[in-house]
Amino acid sequence: MSRTLSLPGFEIGPARPLAIIAGPCVLESLELGLTIGRVLKSACETSGLHYVFKASFDKANRSSINSPRGPGIERGVAWIAEIGRTLNVPTTTDIHETAHASTVAQHIDLLQIPAFLCRQTDLLAAAGHAAATFGRGVNVKKGQFLPPHDMAGPVKKLAEAGCSNVLLTERGTTFGYGRLVNDFLGLGDLMDLKVPGGSPPVCFDVTHSTQLPGAGETTGGRPDRAPLLAHAATAAGVHALFIECHPEPSTAMSDASTALRLADMPGLLAQIAALATARASF
Known about the structure:
Blueprint: E1 5-7, E2 10-12, E3 19-23, H1 30-47, E4 50-54, H2 73-87, E5 91-94, H3 98-105, E6 110-113, H4 121-134, E7 137-141, H5 152-160, E8 166-170, E9 173-174, E10 180-181, H6 184-191, E11 202-205, E12 211-212, E13 220-221, H7 226-236, E14 240-246, E15 260-261, H8 265-280
């Protein structure tokens, strides 16, 4: 048995159109966020895909203490919420501390738990309680160090905090030779996760899966392989794709080595939509 994630205007899950969670890694300005969001929304509408705007107000897990982190919670959340209202799309952002949960849930539709924090009980409990209080959802990224079946733990913690409106995201597994490896057997296991109430829908993080960890003060990446992973995950039957993009990736404040060019997104989304349609006919 499977369940869905409810967002304003649509659901993510089986027998629903594929959802695209996309935007810049860090929100550099309100204007840039609106520019990116408009292109992505239009491309998703053209291709028959659902769209969720994504951006971070703070990048707390950076390779260097000197790396830019973003506008901060007060201004960043206000910007993301305004982008959602202006474009009439759901929004998501990541939280890193328990104190973030309630503040973010008052304005943002989907709270994201970063991969490295997916087992933090207090953070999950705070996110689950805030999501239940304000009618939001929670997206938990699977840690690079966890097997798929261990994601039952975060799902159960959220349920105990009152939240069953959950999405799980695969973002690659640490393998030991300077790259992340995408285990598609494990992706299938994640989609079939055995938890009370049914397995949550699953998202595949396309761009973070191309990271090359340990590349120095900034993480390296292989964005040229992102379309390959997006195609494979869509063919495997995931319910959503997570993609970071920027008009000029080389100048992006964060994840410049993995973000896709905004101009390339409409074409990629059209390909993804065609694959999703073909798969639905099987």
